[in-house]
Design goal:
Length: about 600
């Protein structure tokens, strides 16, 4: 055998062996589903390059929280300027740039301006609401939210960078916020406080789930009240609850800032920016933004057998729709009903009271009225393009058939009660809702939590009311429970007129569901949606196989089938008849 031929055979055999070994290794290794494997781009979370416990500037002594923050600024001297231009500081969207006053009339959103069905509105309760503001000061003065105010509004570095979140919790209590703002019942015991300012200052570092959660887990009145996918269950979740935030190796070990990346103190990801679509014009889905596609790409299922078929859904179905099968799946329930019209009922001792069920649910409090919570329930599904339409105090509500509710009696089985609540609010107007049409290129099917509330309005023009809840004034609702006085004070604070008469009306609002992502093996399967009584049974628009049908086409098919079957039977009869006829002639 010539030498060059032998060499070629040797190379060929070696190459074949290498390919066979590779193929065998690939066949023995299960495909990694990107839904349960941490993406390389997101897993590389930078850690702090500084050990603040070594800095002499933080050695103290400190006697106030403001002294701690002032010690940070000589090094982080651009921090306040950056922070003043963010949504976290101004509570307005778009946020006012540093040095520019925020024009409330020009703001599209932000909790300083919009109304909701929980604690209703912020301007009339600024002294209490600002207890969780990151300015480091607590004044009943809108200037605390205005970066152009003189002297320049400070910042509270510790709110985000003290890793345990206890700094922020202590601020809530030390700055005099009304207990009912966060607690449904009056708790006994000492309130948290910061005793060692030096220890707190030296502990600072990157934000943690606990520091972010100190505010976001307790939004609008307590643990999990507002968000069905954000609560303290995410501090140490099992992978079945959140595969991203569970500790490695079972989970990805993410923190909030892994997805909500920061540029000059502005965090990516907001209900006010971007939508579920994959177009580059949607800012929530590009680069390091807080979105599924930011890490998993536009074809997230290419590593599994059914990947091609599943990836066809990306243009119409948001990732969260399949991978967050239920809301409040952990130990913490979320609020789904709040009836403000029933406020004011006192206990036998003529003092505010709370009513509980055997399972521990609080279903009535004097300060907040009737309440209902639920856990582990399916989201509602809508078409969304990411544009959130919100109402403000003073905005008239559309006239609808829903002016009161029937059949809702908090205290029964929670799952049964939720179904009754949804039926009772079926015609209630929306005070926060996403736009989106099935024919829109930017719209996707997304999951939302729907909050059902009975809220005060101006009886004359159906304008949403702003209410003063607490404070030393006799006008505060929680002092004397006089709605007319509380609404008059609240509307004045919001700069809105008031007729003097209060009415109540049911309203609904949509709240996005983006967290508590389940492992791939418990994601929704095809029949969950592709069936006549599936999760998308009432979702309008489009033709969904398994759910939708064309009656005329079904009838035509049945007629064609019946005709074919009839022809076959007729042919069979003819064959049998001719066979018997000819058989008889032969034997005769």
């Amino acid at each position: 055998m010539p030498g060059h031929v032998f060499l070629r055979l040797t190379v060929a055999v070696g190459l074949a062996a290498t390919l066979a070994t590779t193929a065998l290794a690939q066949s023995d290794t299960p495909a990694q589903d990107p839904a349960v494997s941490p993406p390389a781009t997101a897993a590389a979370v930078p850690v702090s390059t500084a050990d603040h416990s070594r800095f002499d500037a933080l050695a103290g002594p400190f006697t106030t929280a403001q002294e701690v923050n002032e010690a940070c600024l000589p090094c982080h001297n651009t921090g306040p300027e950056q922070l003043h231009g963010t949504l976290h500081f101004s509570w307005s969207w778009p946020a006012a740039s540093s040095g520019q006053a925020a024009d409330a009339s020009a703001m599209a959103g932000g909790m300083l301006h919009v109304a909701n069905g929980f604690l209703l509105s912020t301007p009339s309760n600024l002294d209490a609401c600002s207890s969780c503001h990151i300015a480091g000061t607590r004044f009943e003065d809108p200037a605390v939210l205005d970066a152009s105010s003189a002297p320049v509004a400070p910042v509270d570095c510790m709110s985000c960078h003290e890793p345990t979140g206890q700094w922020t919790v202590a601020n809530f209590h030390e700055d005099g916020a009304a207990c009912s703002m966060c607690h449904d019942e009056r708790l006994r015991g000492d309130t948290p406080e910061v005793k060692d300012f030096v220890l707190a200052a030296k502990s600072v570092g990157p934000s943690t789930n606990a520091s972010c959660g100190a505010c976001h887990f307790n939004a609008d009145g307590g643990q999990g009240v507002k968000h069905g996918d954000l609560n303290a269950d995410l501090l140490a979740p099992p992978p079945t609850l959140d595969v991203h935030m569970a500790a490695a190796p079972e989970g990805a070990g993410f923190t909030c800032s892994t997805c909500h990346t920061t540029t000059e103190h502005a965090l990516a990801g907001s209900r006010y920016a971007g939508g579920p679509g994959a177009r580059p014009e949607s800012p929530a889905l590009v680069g390091a933004a807080a979105s599924c596609q930011g890490c998993h790409g536009a074809m997230p299922h290419d590593a599994i057998k059914r990947g091609v078929r599943l990836d066809r859904h990306i243009s119409t179905v948001a990732c969260e729709t399949c991978h967050i099968p239920s809301i409040a799946r952990g130990e913490t329930a979320t609020r789904v009903f709040w009836d403000w019209s029933t406020v004011g009922k006192l206990g036998r001792d003529r003092k505010p009271m709370a009513q509980k069920q055997k399972d521990g649910r609080i279903t009535y409090t004097t300060e907040k009225g009737h309440l209902e919570v639920a856990r582990s329930f399916a989201p509602d599904y809508i078409w969304s393009d990411g544009m959130l339409d919100m109402h403000r105090p003073g905005t008239p509500l559309p006239a609808t058939g829903a002016t009161e509710i029937d059949g809702v009696e908090p205290g029964r089985d929670a799952s049964t009660e939720l179904a009754l609540i949804k039926d009772a609010f079926a015609d209630a107007p929306w005070i926060a809702s996403y736009s989106g049409e099935p024919v829109s290129e930017d719209a996707r099917i997304v999951p939302v939590k729907i909050m059902h509330s009975v809220v005060p309005i101006d009886a004359e023009n159906r304008a949403l009311a702003s209410v003063k809840f607490s404070g030393r004034s006799g006008d505060a609702l929680w002092n004397r429970f006089r709605w007319e006085n509380a609404v008059e004070a609240g509307m004045e604070a919001a700069g809105q007129p008031f007729s003097g008469e209060v009415a109540f009306t049911p309203v609904r609002q949509m709240i996005p569901v983006n967290h508590m992502v389940a492992p791939a093996e418990v994601a929704l399967q095809c029949p969950a949606c592709h069936s006549s009584d599936g999760l998308l049974e009432e979702l309008p628009g489009g033709f969904l196989p398994g759910r939708d049908r064309y009656d005329w086409l079904d009838k035509a098919g049945l007629l064609l089938l019946a005709g074919t079957l009839g022809a076959v039977l007729f042919h069979l009869v003819l064959r049998l008849g001719f066979a018997l006829f000819h058989r008889g002639k032969r034997h005769g």
